[in-house]
Amino acid sequence: MKKIGIIICARYQSCGGGKCFRALKERAGAFSIYEPEEDVQLVGYSNCGGCPGGNVEYVPEEMIKNGADTIHFATGLVVGYPPCPYIREFKEYIESRYNIPVVVGTHPIPLKYYTEHEKLSYWGKMDMQDIAPELFRDDEAKMKAYD
Ligand code: SF4
């Protein structure tokens, strides 16, 4: 069984997690790395604590105590307005400090966000396809389903 924790962007801290939970069930977006028949349990869900993300230092420990073996950053970090500028640093820190893999992304990128971000020069420069390759495997129909 896989056990995962999710860290969301604090700007969306009131989010109920609907898209993330749905995508986990559907093995969509970054959750496509798990086989449909694989049991994946969510053992932690929190936010970064607000810019510049102080909670990232501590919250993985709590998730790991609950058995987490992978941490996901929510898709909102990738397609927020603006996207989180610290994704690479957060990922490197958690993987170095806690020796646990970090996957950037949860649910598929909603098509309406993808379309808008594609127009933004700075988004292109952030090289999100390199940071979150799993999120760029969804086709338009799947992204549209998460609008
Ligand atoms: S942009 Fe990054 S550091 Fe700022 S609140 Fe969102 S996830 Fe946290």
Task: Describe what you observe in this structure.
The chain is of the alpha/beta class. It has one domain: Rossmann fold (3-Layer(aba) Sandwich). The chain has helices at residues 18-26, 59-65, 87-98, 111-118, 121-125, 128-131, 140-144; strands at 2-8, 40-47, 70-73, 102-104. It has a four-stranded parallel β-sheet, with helices on one face. The longest helix has 12 residues, at 87-98. The mean pLDDT is 96. Bound molecules: iron/sulfur cluster. Residues 9-11, 48, 50-53, 77, 80, 84, 86 line the site of iron/sulfur cluster.
Largest sheet, in brief, is: 4 strands, parallel
Find the CATH topology.
Rossmann fold
State the total count of DSSP E strands.
4
Question: How many structural domains are formed by the residues?
Answer: 1
Count of DSSP H/I helices: 7
Brief summary of the model shown:
The protein has helices at 18-26, 59-65, 87-98, 111-118, 121-125, 128-131, 140-144; strands at residues 2-8, 40-47, 70-73, 102-104.
Explain the layout of strands and helices:
Layout (H helix, E strand, L loop, with lengths): L1 E7 L9 H9 L13 E8 L11 H7 L4 E4 L13 H12 L3 E3 L6 H8 L2 H5 L2 H4 L8 H5 L3
Parallel strand pairs: 1-2, 1-3, 3-4
Features:
147 residues, alpha/beta, Rossmann fold, four-stranded parallel β-sheet, 7 helices, binds iron/sulfur cluster
